[in-house]
Amino acid sequence: MRALVREGVDTIFGYPGGAIMPIYDALYDYKDRIRHVLVRHEQGAAHAAEGYSRTAGKPGVAMATSGPGATNLVTGITDAMSDSIPIVCITGQVTLAALGTDAFQEAPIVGIVTPVTKWCYQITRADEIPYIVAKAFHIAKSGRPGPVLIDITKNAQFELFEYDPDETYTFSPRISKTPPSLDHEVEAAAELLNTAKTPYIVFGHGISISKAEKELIAVAEKSGIPMASTLLGLSSVPVSHPLYRGMLGMHGNYSTNKLTNKADVILAIGMRFDDRVTGKVSGYAPNAKIVHVDIDRAELHKVMKAEIAIHADAKEFLQRLLPLLKKRDHTQWMREFDGFDAEEKKIVTQPELYPKSGKITMAEVIRILSEKTKGEAVIVADVGQHQMVAARYYGFQKPDSYITSGGLGTMGFALPAAVGAKMGDRKKRDVIAVIGDGSFQMNIQELGTIMQEKLPVKIIILNNHFLGMVRQWQALFFEERYSFVHMDNPDFNKIADGYGIRNELVKERKDLSKALDRMLKAKGPYLLDIYVKKEENVFPMVPSGATVDEIRIK
Ligand SMILES: Cc1ncc(C[n+]2csc(CCOP(=O)(O)OP(=O)(O)O)c2C)c(N)n1
Question: What is the pTM of this model?
Answer without folding.
Answer: 0.98
